[in-house]
Amino acid sequence: QPTGFRFSLDRGVGMVPLSRPSRLGSLTFEIYRELAEFFPKLSEHPDVRAVVITGEGRGFCSGGDVQDIIAELFQRDAKGMLAFTRGTGELIANVRRCRRPVSAAVNGVAVGAGAVLAAACDVRYFARSARIGFIFPKVGLSGADMGASFLLKRIVGLGYASELLFSGDVIDAAE
Questions:
Q1: Burial class (CB in 10 A: 0-12, 13-18, 19+), 109
Q2: Which pTM was predicted?
Q3: pLDDT band at 22; cut points 50, 70, 90
Q4: According to DSSP H, which parts of the chain are helical?
Q5: Which of 151, 171, 6, 138 has the alpha carbon at shortest distance from 64?
Q6: Is the separation of the CB atoms in 42 and 77 below 8 Å?
Q7: Is 70 exceeded by the pLDDT of residue 140?
Q8: Distance CA 1, CA 15 (A)
Q9: Distance in angstroms (rounded) separating the CA atoms of residues 100 and 81
């Protein structure tokens, strides 16, 4: 059983709510691994016709947990950073490779890894209160964008994607 998210199946729709609502759905090393291993299984599950990723509580996903991931990354050498980057890339690649349509139902904040996770989905639905931001430069991880620079320009165009990626601003999804 995964610890960082739940899974339920109702009439062919697999719901994947990210847990940890008190931390706005932030990801840990363990949750990255669990999600990366889970998505290939969804592709092969005969009863799953579509997948919806969402958050519990007030947020979709506030990215990497500040205490569990961000602080740890600053202690890692280049080899450790590369391993982490490959792990996060594996998650995004597995979402993209999923043979079922994957939707993001974004409630509240989706920043950093949460924003990229939403971008990796086939379709994104935003609540009026949703906020999204690619904040990697603000936490010193500008080279580890989990594929944001590849994905975002295909969604909003190169010009706006460049503004979003390099500013590190969090914007209202309604904009």
A1: buried
A2: 0.90
A3: confident
A4: 29-44, 71-73, 78-97, 113-120, 148-156, 158-167
A5: 138
A6: no
A7: no
A8: 15
A9: 31
